[in-house]
Amino acid sequence: MRLTLPLWLTILRVAVIPVVLALFYLPIPYARQIATVLYAAACITDWFDGWLARRWGQTSKFGAFLDPVADKLLVAVCLVMLLHAQSNANPLFSVLVAIIIGREITISALREWMAELGSRANVAVSWIGKLKTAFQMTAIGMMIWEIPTFGLPWFDMGFALLFVAAALTIWSMVIYLKAAWPMMKESA
Q1: Contact of 154 with 147, CB cutoff 8 Å
Q2: CATH architecture of 5-182
Q3: pTM score above 0.85
Q4: Other beta carbons less than 10 A from residue 159's beta carbon
Q5: Domain ranges of the chain
Q6: Are 24 and 32 within 8 A, CB to CB?
Q7: Which element (helix H / strand E) includes 77?
Q8: Taking a C-beta distance cutoff of 8 angstroms, is the pair 75, 100 a contact?
Q9: What is the pLDDT of residue 124?
Q10: What is the tens place of the pLDDT at every residue in 152-171?
């Protein structure tokens, strides 16, 4: 395996997860804001590593595997971290987290199964999936920051965006399941 810059960016996205987690819980000034900056940098690499790999012809099977894993780990760990930190959390927060993480597990399993059938392209990432990811990552970043700045209630704004992300999550899952349905019926 050749370690290219795009692959390094994906690996760094995974490596930053425990750092964000630790900073989130550290009782030092601005730790959550530093965690947010690192989280945002990791989110930017989600777009940048794939773009570089395609542009420079440095795509690899390992990179294609690791990229979505890195994204899902980053989102899932941060959602659980945020949920844990909200001792008096709105019960809807738990539902949104369950929807988002449940969808990620379901679609990952579906893609793996479809790959075994040689039909992975039927459940390739769509524009709605990319939009869902953008809303999720933005909402999570706002919620990690938490401290109101310039009079903006970041956590509340992120929580509102998480509703949009959850709706897009369900919509994209329905699209993927619908695309896979003919194969699922055949295999039943």
Answers
A1: yes
A2: Up-down Bundle (1.20)
A3: yes
A4: 20
A5: 5-182
A6: yes
A7: helix 61-85
A8: yes
A9: 62
A10: 999 999 999 999 999 999 99
Q: Which two tokens stand for residue 32?
A: 């959550």
DSSP state of 121: G
pLDDT at 123: 61
- Measure the CA–CA gap between 80 and 178, rounded to whole angstroms: 29
Instruction: Give the mean pLDDT of 145-149.
Output: 91
Enter the DSSP assignment of 28. Answer: S
Phi, psi of 60 (to 5 degrees): -145, 160
149 — alpha (psi -120 to 50), left (phi > 0) or beta? beta
Residues in Cβ contact with 58 at an 8 Å cutoff, skipping those fewer than 6 apart: 4, 5, 6, 7, 52
CA gap 163, 88 in Å, rounded: 18
Q: How many residues does the chain have?
A: 188
- Please state, in angstroms and rounded to a whole number, the distance separating the CA atoms of residues 165 and 134: 8
Both tokens assigned to 5: 């810059």
CA distance 173 to 46: 20
